[in-house]
Design a protein that fits this description.
The complex is a heterodimer of chains A (82) and B (414). By secondary structure, chain A is an all-alpha fold. Helix content of chain A is 54%, strand content 0%. Classes of the chains: A mainly alpha (82), B alpha/beta (414). Chain A: It comes from Streptomyces griseoaurantiacus M045.
Chain lengths: 82, 414
């Protein structure tokens, strides 16, 4: 798993009080009881804490945590190389 | 304008109650605390450094434990307290949200302020960290109507759904409105009540600035809320929720439910006098009392007990006492729960209606905390010191809001 995945899991555990045992790369946000507005909140926190610029509709509740980590990585990449 | 002929409207039963108050989590804990007559007011760390720093706070409430992770993160406290009370009330009624016809279940909740603590915290974030730091959940955590929306989601209740805002009468207005929905047949079950968590630095300071709060006994918080006492000087803010499950009595009996009491009458009126001060002549209160009595088809002398609004402000208690004496005389045993619980604003009317149900069931009128020397202007029999045992067949629960909004409920023994 990528560093971004680990960071995302850390955020879910620390800020959103998800049990670490509930989380896997194939777990969807829906399975964590996070609806669309809750996900917008998560993306806002990611923007401010990770410094990643990402649209608030970049992910949906049916997405897996692994998939959203990939999206974040892509968005973070240009910043990292600049 | 005449009231509908009494006796023709279907009787409305209370089949479940739930309470979350500064006296404890649960109806039994609250009842024990109110009967013990000791005030819950204490110094509040959330208010440290402010001119008024005392409140009546729900003890030991853990959002994670009581409403779960998701609610603990996405709901303001006024919704969390309400959810807890609502689940208790529904469980007590014996109704099962998994099997009921949700389209016939309504939710009517009183709320005066909404998620004000969230609002203040997010406003601070915006000022300190910029707009990007503001939560996407601010609006659904703030707006008062969300409490009824969340209860609908939690319980699968898809009938009429609304929040009443009549300030400190909101909870009673909700129960009165629910009674009307049941009488007109708009639904079969209504979860009715009130929820409020307005103990925030800005709100408390706002109430303090208008002179509504007790300031004379900040060094002895447990003596500050003293309804009807000659030395009273304002209310102590509280938080909490009270919820009642209401059904038409015939339906409740048909399913074998335990009928706890009846909501027999409701009277509402406006003072149209002053934005916050009560009409000293009590004109609006008198009309609401008379309307509620007529709706319940009861004579003034048939009221055994008054659960007063009794906020502990000099103006309210004097005006209320005058109006009650004028309409009901001096025979009813009067109490105010606000000596123990403080003033829970939009939740108060519902919490006190639930306590009135318990008084009817137990034949016990709880004492008014801190009532040591009754104000000579209060020519009523106000219970103090210890609970008073007596048969209570019919009772009035008064609630009055800033804005001059009055809501009076008549509850009768099952």
């Amino acid at each position: 798993m990528s560093a971004m995945y680990d960071r995302l899991v850390g955020l879910l555990v620390d800020r959103f009080e998800v049990d670490r045992a509930e989380i896997g790369a194939d777990t969807t946000f829906e399975e964590l009881d996070m609806d669309s507005l809750f996900l917008v909140e998560l993306l806002l926190v990611i923007q401010s804490e990770f410094g990643v610029q990402i649209e608030d509709d970049a992910a949906s509740p049916g997405d897996t945590i692994g998939r959203v980590a990939e999206i974040l990585e892509r968005h973070a990449a240009p910043t990292a190389s600049s | 304008m005449t009231a509908p002929p009494a006796g023709t409207a279907p009787a409305v039963a209370v089949t479940g109650i739930g309470l979350v108050t500064a006296a404890g989590i649960g109806a039994e804990a609250t009842w024990q605390g109110v009967c013990a007559g000791a005030s819950t007011a204490a110094r509040d760390p959330r208010l440290a450094g402010l001119p008024v720093d005392i409140s009546c706070t729900v003890p030991g409430f853990s959002p994670r434990e009581h409403v779960g992770r998701r609610s603990s993160l996405t709901h303001d406290r006024f919704i969390q307290l309400s959810l807890t009370a609502a689940r208790e009330a529904v469980a007590a009624s014996g109704l099962d949200p998994a099997t009921w016809d949700g389209a016939r279940v309504g939710v009517v909740v009183g709320c005066g302020l909404g998620g004000v603590a969230t609002w203040e915290a997010q406003h601070r974030r915006m000022l300190e960290q910029g707009p990007g730091a503001v939560s996407a959940l601010l609006i659904p955590m703030l707006v008062p109507n969300m409490v009824a929306g969340h209860l609908a989601m939690d319980l699968g209740a898809t009938g009429p759904n609304l929040v009443t805002a009549t300030a400190c009468a909101s909870g009673a207005t909700a129960i009165g409105t629910a009674m009307q929905l049941l009488r007109e047949g708009s639904c079969d079950v209504v979860l009715a009540g009130g929820g409020e968590a307005g103990v925030s630095p800005l709100m408390v300071t706002g109430f303090a600035q208008m002179g509504a709060l007790s300031t004379a006994r900040l060094d002895r918080p447990a003596t500050a809320s003293r309804p009807f006492d000659a030395g009273r000087d304002g209310f102590v803010i509280g938080e909490g929720s009270g919820m009642l499950v209401l059904e038409r009595e015939a339906d409740a009996r048909a399913r074998g439910a335990r009928v706890r009491a009846r909501v027999a009458g409701y009277g509402a009126s406006a003072d149209a006098h002053h934005m916050t001060a009560p009409d000293p002549e009590g004109g609006g209160v008198i009309r609401a009392l008379r309307t509620a009595l007529a709706a319940a088809d009861l004579l003034p002398g048939e009221i055994d007990h008054v659960n007063a609004h009794g906020t502990s402000t000099p103006l309210n208690d004097a005006a209320e006492a005058r109006a009650v004496r004028k309409v009901l005389g001096q025979d009813a045993d009067v109490t105010s729960a606000k000596g123990v619980l403080g003033h829970t604003l939009g939740a108060a009317g519902a919490i006190e209606a639930a306590l009135t149900v318990l008084t009817l069931e137990h034949g016990t009128v709880p004492p008014t905390a801190n009532l040591e020397r009754i104000d000579p202007a209060v020519e009523l029999d106000v219970v103090s010191g210890a609970p008073r045992r007596r048969e209570v067949r019919a009772a009035v629960s008064n609630s009055f809001g800033f804005g001059g909004q009055n809501a009076v409920l008549v509850l009768t023994a099952a």
